[in-house]
Automatic annotation (TrEMBL):
InterPro entries assigned: AmpC-like (IPR050491), Beta-lactam-related (IPR001466), Beta-lactam/transpept-like (IPR012338), DUF7586 (IPR056008)
Pfam families (UniProt xref): Beta-lactamase, DUF7586
Membrane-spanning parts: none
Protein name: CubicO group peptidase, beta-lactamase class C family
Amino acid sequence: MGQVRADTADALLRRIAVEQAERRIPALAAAVVRDGEIAWFGARGRVAGEPPTPDTQYRIGSITKTLVATVIMRLRDEGRLDLADPLRRHLPGAPAGEATIAQLLSHTSGLTAEPPGPWWERTPGAPAPGVLADDELARPPHRPGRRLHYSNVGYALLGQVITRLRGMSWDRAVHEEVLHPLGMRATTTRPREPYARGYAVHPWADVLLPEPEHDAGAMGPAGQLWSTCADMARWCAFLAGHTGGVLDPATLAEMRRPLAVDEDGLRHGRAFGLGLQLAHGDGRRLAGHGGSMPGFLAGVYADPEDDLGVLYLANTTSGVSNTLLSDLLRIVAEREPRLPREWTPLPADPDLLELAGPWYWGPAPYLLRLLPERGLALEPMSGQGRASRFTPRPDGTWVGLDGYYAGETLRVVRHDGRVWLEVNTFVFTRAPYGDPAEAVPGGVDPDGWRAAF
């Protein structure tokens, strides 16, 4: 669809202008990414006396974690590790060694949020042997898998897993395996000009305090990297599905599945997948991450279904509103809604065509629709209930892709000229509790349906 229209661009610019002015942000830059490309860029404020450009660097903080997680998933796809592996298998003697790689990725390892010692984000980093071998870390506050508890320490440990399995530093692995293939050459471990300096803004006066910036050492995988709007747009496109060969699309989809949520997330539709923060609202399912370091805030989220994403970079310790990105998305969606894909007929095998239409799980009506490449979708007609899509297997069965029946087997059973569906012991028949009644587990009352209790 290319660039947004002029009126849309004006509305987007006004939104970030209000944000920068009212929230008193030294320099704010934002972008909309559509169909894998920047559709709009806007900025307000000054960096070294000039307006920010798409090539101005900011620190991206915890967005670093998404890149680290991507290298971990590459290692998994190569068979170098399993998500169910305990950490001790790859880092003998590490704190919380019984926590799994998946739990570290999804912040359910039980580890403390921050490492012992002074505030790591504002002090020079120490090497891994000193930080990650601290006795305090051997006593995590939560049992692995018990709850979502965001942990920067967990990602420091994942960085060490990368170092051990790749034989190189975590950041070198990120650069070689993710950044360079995606053309993100302006994303660096330390800042390079032109870059925004980080500031705290006084709460009651219009004055600034420069924030310190250091190499985070062992904690680097939790929030070290610097990037630009141009590079973050490429990362936004990646999150939307333009993987560029860095990951199998199925692996990225796996990262986007919700694995953990806390009480606050339940109220606001937020959860964690494998290295990705997930948000659900206004009919969208977004995947991405926020970033925060002293002097900097950032965010990048994408809607894979609509191939639409947004991002912002700001050089302030606090103050960016929680609604900035959702407001930018809403402006684009309301003013330039995506046209639905043109409908075109698709070939359907005769043996599948006869299966399309209504089925019944007991008395509950369901609809079986045909999808491309012999796929199936089984959905409750009421819109409430267990809906899943299925993909065919070579043996003539189907396996669930999502929803309640994810990973479960669907079979089409044919006997004596009759047909029914079986999905993990559940039976779907052509009539409510019948046709054929003998296929229904537990049988059907021989007197059939009646009008009296």
